[in-house]
Every structure is written in structure tokens, then in C-alpha cells.
Amino acid sequence: MAWFHWQERPAQALQGGGVIAPDERLPWAQTGLMGLQHVIAMFGSTVLAPILMGFDPNLAVFMSGLGTLLFFAITGGRVPSYLGSSFAFIGVVIAATGYAGQGPNPQIDVALGGIIACGAVYAAVGLVVHWVGVGWIERFMPPVVTGSVVAVIGLNLASIPIKNMAANNFESWMQALTFVCVALVAVFTRGMVQRLLILVGLLVASVAYAVLTNGLGLGKPIATAGMAAAPWLGLPQFHAPAFSAPAMVLIVPVVIILVAENLGHLKAVTAMTGRNLDPYMGRAFMGDGLATMVSGAAGGTGVTTYAENIGVMAATRIYSTAVFLVAALMAVLLGFSPKFGALIQAIPLPVMGGVSIVVFGLIAIAGAKIWVDNKVDFSQNHNLLVAAITLILGTGEFTLKFGDFALGGIGTATFGAILLNALLAPRKVS
User: What is the pLDDT of residues 18-65, one digit of tens each?
Assistant: First the structure.
């Protein structure tokens, strides 16, 4: 398959649970709608991560689109993935910059230098994998590890919508209404509407929210002033990096988490599509690493293949790489349009929270699917304990400190899964 040569399938192919493969696409109108759905799926996390680090969220959205285009080019358009802001950088960036959590990060240049260094190491790992093969990584990260890491990503993110996206009882009920809307669309509709479950569910829930708040005054109304005031066109705010050895020492180890995430995501996509993506693993690592370097050089966050979008693929069974090309182009345009960004940000937080509950849950299930598809034997104590401990470490945000460096959540879960697997793996008896 050349980059832009997809076999077109009619929209009727979606009837009866039809699957759209990576080298296929729907008509461009439907592909565009699917791309928009993926943009919405990634938007919450891609915007939230830079806000938590004091970065510019509009620039992060722009760089996510640019990074996805770079990833698409390096993988030859064969790997369906979207690259968005990585949460793995949050803790180390805060530690390296001393960010207080309010407004722009005054030490953003130092963080950017560390992000670039991390991306360079990541790309180097990808180059080795491309030359040598993925076997040596798989020995460290077998299906029990990758499945656990993918599952724990979804479970770790679960606290974000539950704790941070509903301020009162009304907003909690709106979250519930949202995920019920998404579920109803997923189960009781057919064809293209069913595949647009996230987008349609979000629209229905947003209308219901507007009626209850703007109309009946039951909660915080949807703010439209920001949309009206935002200009149609505007440049993102770029920043130059600075290279500090202490900051790089703190940030570069994040590469282990990124490798584990990407490996787990690709294994999840392999399980869903039935396509062996191992030959493109090295390119995927290189693409992610180079995209992180480019993002850091411009003032954006480090990026990673997005589990949120894998969750959407799992629900829609549309794996076309054309969808991600369209989504990336939309994100680039979004980065140049403060008004469109304001429109997306005007989506009520509880509604976005309800959507996030669905998407993060689908991520966790994608991890479990890796176990099932690879027939991981949980009657073996080795597999049982690796998975059990990893899930609790990540879900419970278990944190270990090494001086000023803190490793928590997904980090301890990832390292824990790798180390436990190596320690507990059965030894061959000669």
C-alpha cells in the first residue's frame, strides 16, 4: 500500500458489524466525520496535559497534528495511530522546572531541552529495533506485560473524569447521561451512526446539557463569550528550548514508559486488526521519537501514540490510516484557529468527562484483549502476579522517590511490570 492508496469501501460495508482495514477507507465524507471523532477523542487529554505542565494547549494540539503527520510518513501510512500529549512527562517536567501549577511555566525552555533529549533516545531505540528486530524488546515485554501496561493506562486515567471533571452532583449526573448516550448509540444504532458513537453521544449530551443549564438554569451554563471573542486565525505561541543536564537526567528515563506504551498500543492494534505490525515497530518508535523532538523544539509537549484513539478504533472497528491523516490535518488547522479551539473547549466539562469514562474504559479492555488474544495463562503464578501487582501500582498511583525524582502511576507500573516479569519468569531447567 502506497501512502495515499487506500481501497475505497462503500458506507454500506459498515452494516452487520463490517470492519474497515488499515489499507481501506470509507468515502471521504464519512472518513472526515471519523477523523473529527478522533480529534474530539484526543482533545481532552492533549489539552489537559500541557495545562498541567504550564505549556500552551493550542500549540500542543497543533504539534499533535504535525507529529501524527510525521508518524504517518515514517511508517509509510501503515500504522493506524494518533500522537497526542503524553502524561508520562508531567511528573518529571514539574520536578525539573519547579512549576507551581498556575499559568505559563517560567522554566519551559529547560523542560523542552529534556523532552528533545528523550525523543532523541526514543528515536535511537526505534532505529535499533528497525535494524535488529523487536524480539529483544518482546523478551522484556511479553503479552502479560504489554497487556498490563495498556490496561493500567486506562485505569490510571480513570480518576481524571471521576475526580476532576464533575464539581457537583448535577455534573456527575450529566457524566452519567453522557456515557449512557454513547452506550445507547453504540448498541441500538447501525451503520455510520453507530461508528460515530463518541461524536453522536457527545452532541446529544451537549444539547441536553444546554437545555438543562442555559434553558432551565440547573447548572453552570455553556459559555459562548470565549467563542465569540476568539479570532478565526492566529499563530500558536512558540518557545525555544534550553539544554540543562539535570533536567535531561530527570526527563530522559521517560523513554522506557513511551516504549512500553507504544509497544502495548501496537500490540492492541495488531490484536484488533489481525495485521502483524511488528515489521513497523522500529519505524513507529522512530516516528514517535522524532515527533517528540519536533514538538519540544517548537515549545510543545512530548507525544505518544494515543490510547484514547485506540479506544475509538476498538468501538468503531474502523482502522483506516486515512482517518488519522484527516484527523492530523484537522488538528493542524485547529492549532491555527483559536475560535475552533474555543468551540471545542466550550464543550461542557461533565460531558467531556462522560465521554472520557467510555474511552478510558475501552483502553483498559484493549489491554485485557491482549491477554485473551495471546492466551496468557493466569493459572501460572508468574503471569498472575505480574498483572495483579502492575494493575494496582498504576491504578493506586504508587510513587517511588529517588532524590528529587519521583516515579509514580504509569511509570512505576511500567517499570514494575518489566522488572517483575524478569524476576519471576520461570527458569529453563537444563
Answer: 788 888 888 888 899 989 889 888 876 787 678 768 888 889 999 999
- Place 341 in a pLDDT band, splitting at 50, 70 and 90: low
Global pTM reads: 0.73
C-alpha cell at position 228: 465569540
